[in-house]
Design goal:
This protein is α+β, with helices and mostly antiparallel strands. The protein is built from six helices and four strands.
């Protein structure tokens, strides 16, 4: 019990530090209400023209474009993409895979290998019992089985793999919440 309590307090301290750094970074960037509105509009539809964005946030096109370029340069806007419907392109199975590595295995090797696996669309280093959580899109169960057996389990240092399959997508958005900006 005492060990769990110390982990809890250490975890809370880490979260507090991250939270303070995040607030400090937002202050340093200097986002205002208009920036937040631009971000909301672009998250909803990244294909809008500058003219359309400007109209929706009540700005003229030149200042709007300057703000968008600033948000891009600051790295707030990372990229613009087309979001594909996985099932429409033959990727009917979504799996979440927990991966546990040997203690002595260099994690850089695993991270490099993950970059080469097109089935893995997201990979997160995790706290807890498992080291990584992967989001994997594949055609079907035989494709997933081949991927796990021929790729993941053949990689040196992989100790354990646990998979869960999505039965239904309840929510899947790329739009980030912006309320924390407080403007």
């Amino acid at each position: 019990m005492i060990a769990n309590a110390s982990h809890f307090f250490r975890f809370r301290a880490i979260i507090s530090c991250v939270d303070a750094l995040t607030r400090q970074k937002m202050t340093e960037i200097g986002l205002d209400k208009t920036d937040r509105r631009i971000l909301e509009v672009l998250q909803a539809d990244g294909r809008l023209t500058n003219q359309e964005v400007a109209e929706r946030v009540s700005l003229s096109p030149s200042p709007c474009l300057r703000r968008i370029r600033r948000l891009e340069q600051l790295g707030v806007i990372r990229q613009y993409v087309a979001l594909l419907e996985p099932q429409r392109i033959g990727l009917g199975l979504l799996a979440f895979v927990n991966v546990h590595l040997e203690k002595r295995m260099p994690h850089d090797d695993f991270k490099a290998r993950v970059q080469a696996w097109p089935e893995v669309v997201a990979c997160f280093a995790m706290t807890g019992e498992m080291d990584y959580l992967l989001r994997v899109h594949v055609e079907d169960l035989p494709h997933f089985s081949r991927f796990v057996m021929e790729q993941m389990l053949k990689m040196p240092g992989v100790v354990d793999v646990k998979s869960s399959f999505a039965l239904e997508v309840v929510k899947d958005t790329t739009a980030l919440p912006l309320r924390q900006l407080g403007v």
